[in-house]
Amino acid sequence: MDSITYLQQQFTALRRQVNTTLADLTDEKLNWTPPGQANKIGVTLLRTVGGEDWMISTWLQGKPPLWETRGWAAKIGVATPPGGGGSWDEARQATLELASLMAFQEAVCEATSAYLATLTPEDLDRPVDVFGSERPLATVLIIVESHILGHMGEIAALKGVQGAKGLPY
């Protein structure tokens, strides 16, 4: 199997994990405020999808994220996704809607898949500036996957605390 096919399969498996984790969410579960310092599921989901959008669009393609080009701030009601320059406080105070977050996620997933379909083996070695340090593009894709999976673990745990099934196993 070549590296591009492997990465595409990894992202396909990642999407299955994400969809399983997000299954049966409601607006109520999305906006429930957990005790302590944990973020609401909605805030974490917005961070996750916004991070993927920014990393794939900006780091790897050198273009503005979908958040900016497709007007997601107005659709979701937050100026910028938290992290990466966005305000955590604004997102924490917002009441988010599952439908708009899932639409944003779908748009970002489609854009990521379309980008992955354009890659060549030579692209995987291309240096990418990540916070002032150059890394191979393939490494950045692994960072994107790890970022998403880590946040899905948080979301699964927060669903469990609310009495819902976080993961299927």
What would your notes on this structure say?
- The chain has one domain (26-161): dinb family like domain (Four Helix Bundle (Hemerythrin (Met), subunit A)), CATH 1.20.120.450.
- Helices cover 63% and strands 5% of the residues.
- The protein has 8 helices and 2 strands, in the order H-H-H-H-H-H-H-E-E-H.
- The chain has a two-stranded antiparallel sheet with strand order 1-2.
- Strand 1 (127-130) and strand 2 (133-136) form a beta hairpin.
- Helix 1 packs antiparallel against helix 7 (98-118), helix 1 (3-22) packs parallel to helix 8 and helix 3 (41-61) packs antiparallel against helix 8 (137-161).
Features:
169 residues, mainly alpha, Four Helix Bundle (Hemerythrin (Met), subunit A)
Which helices and strands appear, and what pairs or packs with what?
Elements: H1 3-22, H2 27-31, H3 41-61, H4 66-69, H5 72-76, H6 88-93, H7 98-118, E1 127-130, E2 133-136, H8 137-161
Antiparallel strand pairs: 1-2
Helix pairs in contact: 1-7, 1-8, 3-7, 3-8
Short structural description:
The protein is mainly alpha-helical and 169 residues long. The chain has 8 helices and 2 strands.
N-to-C SSE string, H for helix and E for strand = HHHHHHHEEH
What is the overall shape? globular
Taking the alpha carbons of the first and last residues, their distance comes to 29 Å
Mean pLDDT across all amino acids = 95
How many DSSP H or I helices? 8
Detail the poorly predicted runs. none
Give the tally of β-strands.
2
Under CATH, the topology can be stated as: Four Helix Bundle (Hemerythrin (Met), subunit A)
